[in-house]
Amino acid sequence: MLLFALMFIAPWRSRTRRHIQRLWHRYETPASPGPRVVVHAVSLGEVNAAGRFVRSMVDLGLNVICSTTTSSGGQRSRELHKDLVQIDWPLDISFCCKKWLDAVHPDVLVLVELEVWPTMIKLARERGIPVIVVNGRLSDRSFRKASQAKSILRDGYGNLTHVYAQSDADLSRFRSMGVATQNSSSRPNLKWERDPLDHSALEALRDSLRLDPEKPVIVFGSSAPEEHELFASCFTDDVQIVVAPRRPEWFEHAFRIFPNARLRTDRDSVGPCIVLNTLGELESVYAISDLVVMGRSFGDRHGSDPMAPAAVGKPVLIGPNFDDFESAVKTLRDAGGLRVVSSQSLPGVVSDLMADPKGLAEIGNLAFNAAMSARGVAAELAQEIMDQTQPPRRDRGGAEEKEEGMHRNALNTSAIRRDHEQS
């Protein structure tokens, strides 16, 4: 079904044509010591979320391989983990998955957030390879879609070794999709875990952006085209703006809409509004801002991640549509580090907050304290993965494992009988 759909869509979508090329992709992974753990993070957001978690596993002596699907995710993963092997994830077609497993030989597969591919998970479990979801997220919208294809996805969810969900609500949805209660639990969101920021690096970033240190900075993060006019209306002469569209194809639209805009990559232009037309810099830019407004929340989309700016102590505003990040928004809102505002009230709220630096700092401190309360989850999950790496596991089918188990039981039974007769 998947192959047929790809072939049908390919003539109209370049992204689909790139997926089809993965049908004959060759996978090579160099030999290295330690249990082999493959961490699969689909795209940029998941790669950033798993950064500290990956390093925690490396510190434990695990041989970590990073897997991604999108080109932006792969690029970011290579930047974060220069010393680790990087591979692509296969299409969820049996011969592709078998070829991938034969080449990579993982001891454990770790899926970040939500990538439940039934074929890969079933084949991995048949070989005795644990498949674990960390930072599991199944929003209400995703759950409704998944429920409509429950019969197709049943093997994927039912064969998961363990799911560490982001929240109790996510945990309940995973269980409704077939994950056993004993194989699932909740942990704080990995996105609260952020590396400490280097002050000199941040100042260098401010200089490279050519920002005036005497003027406050407002960042509109992960924006969408339908929000650009609203965000541009918040501009006044006494502030500087950095707008970071979520997708590269939206850069040009933001450049046209914001007054006196300049592109981040244009080293010669000047102006108080910068379009961040690069990938991987947004989280650092949050750290040099005074206020952050989260995009994709004022239109018909489903929100953007408010945890990154909160983790560096920045006050956050978000629109009324944030279904995909409901748990994080609730945590920050309850702590006083985030405000939900409407499109109509946004310009006024921004103006009032920028006129009150002391109030801005207080909101930022509350956001930071909320983020700090969830620290430590990356190291905890890394240890959980370490506990799953009991060799030998790979390259063994279910029948072989069953036969070996019966043999061990027979030996144990004989030993117990001999001890009993001797006594």
Question: Please, how many helices?
Answer: 20
The whole-angstrom Rg is: 24 Å
What is the general shape? globular
Helix/sheet category:
alpha/beta
Number of domains: 2
Q: Strand order within the widest sheet?
A: 3-2-1-4-5-6-7
Report the oligomer: single chain
- Report how far apart the termini are: 63 Å
Average pLDDT value?
A: 86
Proportion in helices: 40-55%
Strand residue content: 5-15%
The count of β-strands is 14
Main beta-sheet annotation: 7 strands, parallel
CATH architecture of the largest domain: 3-Layer(aba) Sandwich
CATH topology name of the largest domain, in short, is Rossmann fold
CATH-wise, what's the superfamily of the largest domain? 3-Deoxy-D-manno-octulosonic-acid transferase, N-terminal domain
Name of the top-level CATH class of the largest domain: Alpha Beta
The unreliable regions are 392-423
Describe it.
- 46% of the residues lie in helices and 15% in strands.
- The protein is globular.
- It has helices spanning 2-9, 14-21, 44-49, 51-59, 71-80, 94-104, 118-126, 140-148, 150-158, 168-176, 199-209, 228-232, 251-257, 282-286, 307-311, 326-335, 346-354, 357-372, 377-388, 398-422; strands at residues 36-40, 63-68, 85-88, 108-112, 131-136, 162-165, 184-186, 217-223, 240-245, 261-263, 273-275, 291-294, 316-318, 338-340.
- The protein folds into two domains: 32-193 and 376-388, Rossmann fold, CATH 3.40.50.11720; 199-372, 3-Layer(aba) Sandwich (Rossmann fold).
- The chain is α/β, with parallel strands linked by helices.
- α15 (307-311) links the parallel β12 (291-294) and β13.
- The N and C termini lie far apart (63 Å).
- Strands 3-2-1-4-5-6-7 form a seven-stranded parallel beta sheet, with helices on both faces.
- Mean pLDDT is 86; it is low at 392-423.
- It contains 20 helices and 14 strands.
